[in-house]
Amino acid sequence: MNLTQEDWVSQFETDENAVILDVRTEAEFNEGIIANAINIDIHLGQGFISEIEALDKTKNYYVYCRSGMRSAKACEIMNELGFENAYNLVGGIIEWDGEVVAP
Predict the structure, then answer these.
(1) How far apart are CA 78 and CA 33, in angstroms?
(2) Fewest CB within a 10 Å sphere: which of 59, 69, 70, 80?
(3) Measured between alpha carbons, how far is 21 from 101 in angstroms, rounded to an integer?
(4) Where is the Rhodanese domain (predicted)?
(5) Cβ partners under 8 Å of residue 97, min gap 6
(6) Active-site amino acid positions
(7) How far apart are CA 13 and CA 37, in angstroms?
(8) Residue 98 has what DSSP assignment?
(9) Between helices 69-80 and 46-53, what is the axis angle to 10°?
(10) Edge to edge, what strands does the sheet with 60-64 contain?
(11) How far, in Å, CA of 76 to CA of 52, rounded?
(12) Residue 57: what pLDDT?
């Protein structure tokens, strides 16, 4: 499900079951992240799927990348793997107005 930054943040902030997931490359991740994000690079192919499958399906995942394209794909994959709540940040981190921190 695609969410604007405003909706993504307001929903995340009130969600006690939330996990922020960054699906960019390790190099991109190291340039700065949304606070408390975990990194699983979507370009890892089967490695990405294996790492995603190991996650807790009862949690709610707030997913982002650089522009919102890879994270939208990641949300589709997560839905196919049985994750009911994966939320894509439309516009990605390049349109992010909030704080960006070092990983």
Answers:
(1) 21
(2) 80
(3) 14
(4) 14-102
(5) 5
(6) 65
(7) 14
(8) S
(9) 60
(10) 2-3, 86-89, 60-64, 18-22, 38-39
(11) 12
(12) 97
Task: Note the helical H segments in 2-103.
Answer: 5-13, 26-30, 46-53, 69-80
Give the H or E element holding residue 62. strand 60-64
The pair of structure tokens assigned to 4 is: 């604007």
Are the C-beta atoms of residues 17 and 59 closer than 8 Å to each other? yes
Neighbour-count burial for 20-43, b at 16+ CB within 10 Å, e otherwise: bbbbbbeebbeeebbeebebbbbe
Q: How many residues does the chain have?
A: 103
Of residues 66, 30, 31, 26, the one with CA closest to residue 47 = 26
pLDDT string in tens for the chain (103-residue length) = 999 999 999 999 999 999 999 999 999 999 999 999 999 999 999 999 999 999 999 999 999 999 999 999 999 999 999 999 999 999 999 999 999 999 9
**Are 83 and 61 contacting, i.e. CB atoms less than 8 angstroms apart?**
yes
Q: Which two tokens stand for residue 42?
A: 């979507």
Tokens of residue 1, six digits: 């499900």
